[in-house]
Amino acid sequence: MECAFDAQNLISISLRKIQSSRTQRGGIKLHKNLLVTYVLRNARQCYMSKNALQTQRTPPYEDAATVRGRQEYLELTGSFTEFADDFYCNFAGVQSDTWHCGAHQSMAQHMELGHQDASACAMVSPSDSDLMVSEACWSCADKSSWELPISNTQVNQKTVLDLDTHVVTTVTNGYFHSDCCAQPKQPQAAAPCYSRKRKMDTSYYIVDPELYLPDFVPLSCKRMRSEDDDDDYLESDSEQLDSANISNLISVLGSGGLSEFVSWQQMDLEQIFGSQTICSKHTLLAGSGWTRAIEAF
Amino acid sequence: KTIKLWKISERDKRPEGYNLKEEDGRYRDPNTVTTLRVPVLRPMDLMVEASPRRVFANAHTYHINSISVNSDHETYLSADDLRINLWHLEITDRSFNIVDIKPANMEELTEVITAAEFHPDQCNTFVYSSSKGTIRLCDMRASALCDQHTKMFEEPEDPNNRSFFSEIISSISDVKFSHSGRYMMTRDYLSVKIWDLNMETRPVETYQVHEYLRSKLCSLYENDCIFDKFECCWNGNDSVVMTGSYNNFFRMFDRDYRQDVTFEASRENSKPRSVLKPRKISTGGKRKKDEISVDSLDFNKKILHTAWHPLDNIIAVATTNNLYIFQDKLN
């Protein structure tokens, strides 16, 4: 097998393929996406086996208990059906075209995740200017927070990168907040709404970032679905024949599931990002302005 | 997701001299007709007409990859990624589902159907191939839903060849029965395999189509070429098999003489009456004259579809925008 760098490369290429297949004519190709999943799995296995050697050198950022806790926490909550489409995709998860990049509100509690997010975002597409936010917004890391276990409240937060405006926003419990530095803006007065998605095109499908991004917080689809806009309600399309069956391919990725990704990402952060600092920038995404976004859980 | 049955016909004559119609089709006022004449058939430029005769719709949720008419000439099957349906040619509003590999939980999806075909003589037998490189033979007499295969053909993977792309290159893109019905041929990304229906453990013959691509799988994955679906075909007496490749190359493998040849379908090489010259790809360091190096292959020029006349040595080869028809050298 190729070295770990190739594995990283393959992972980003594969994620890009999945991303672009959402906009291709003719709809989602189940067969092709299934094969891309296998490449992702193989690349991950290779990468992790290589990193297993390196973890002996790097300081552990989490103790075993934390990892176990995370494993439980990261159990997928069930199938993700988001699309009013007669296409299914075996990658469940994020709504329409949002890739959710991790979110955190307070530094103390969520730094860990923040770091993961940063690396996750960067990992997703190291060279894809489309996905990269030139001024990635993450709170500056507090190293001590690495040891903090992920708390359950994290599930209610996510940071979203808008592919069009390259703006990062954190959504918490239905409210939009600024990113990092724990300076919440006025929560949106509207009913709880997570990252919105635009009206589902029948040719789109969902990609579950949790499958590919090293860190993620499992979110039930229901929460991620926009609830305040009938237009965005995905299940309404009468053409959809298999909406109930869109779910992720965790099994393809192996029994280790998502936790492997998380620990993988943890160890890799230092290697990949070194002293990458994160400046903060926040914005409030208003109303239905979401067209394309990447959510890194 | 819709199947249509078309009638194709040729027209090389047309009637002229109608009494009630002008030549351009407008109707004449009957009061202006003073004499009568008999319309005659006059030759015209050959025209090929296609008219839809049946539309079989709303039976597939996923993309259809195969259609196969049964040897009874009354029924046919259509296969999509997860299901195979059986139709009657005369009944368009209803079909029977005979294979369904969709898991209850899509999270458990691990393979899809890639091709399916009826046996040439046994109207109860069909095969379908999967993205995992397996072929399942089913007998419709066994049960209404043929989820339980009668035979499963699978070759164990060579562990030495394991790579990131093992799953992709083992996915079968085409399956074809031999005319005799005794063998079937499968095409995966790098090879063609001949299977004896009586032996499920491994193919009886394997032919490498373009093994030199194995070291280039990463680039082929990036440019999506690795997902190309090549077809394959048998000649009339099952002694030669043919399949396409890149750079507008197509390959023939003679099973009896254990020979193979590569030809190129291109306008420069295909003047009428000229004989196709065999091509060679240089895989080693030194490139001989007339050989083509792997790096100069054009991956945008691919031959995915080929067909061989069932009786004569006439072949049809499709490049991206052109159809080439070649025949045996006339002595």
UniProtKB/TrEMBL annotation, chain A:
Pfam families (UniProt xref): IER (PF05760)
PANTHER family the record matches: IMMEDIATE EARLY RESPONSE GENE
Family indicated by similarity: Belongs to the IER family.
Name of the protein described by the UniProt record: Immediate early response 5 like
TrEMBL record, chain B:
Taxonomic path: Eukaryota, Metazoa, Chordata, Craniata, Vertebrata
Keyword RNA-binding: no
Keyword presence, tRNA processing: no
Family per record: Belongs to the phosphatase 2A regulatory subunit B family.
Organism encoding this protein: Xenotaenia resolanae
Protein name listed in UniProt: Serine/threonine-protein phosphatase 2A 55 kDa regulatory subunit B
Alphabetized UniProt keyword annotations: Repeat, WD repeat
InterPro entries listed in its UniProt record: PP2A_PR55, PP2A_PR55_CS, WD40/YVTN_repeat-like_dom_sf, WD40_repeat_dom_sf, WD40_rpt
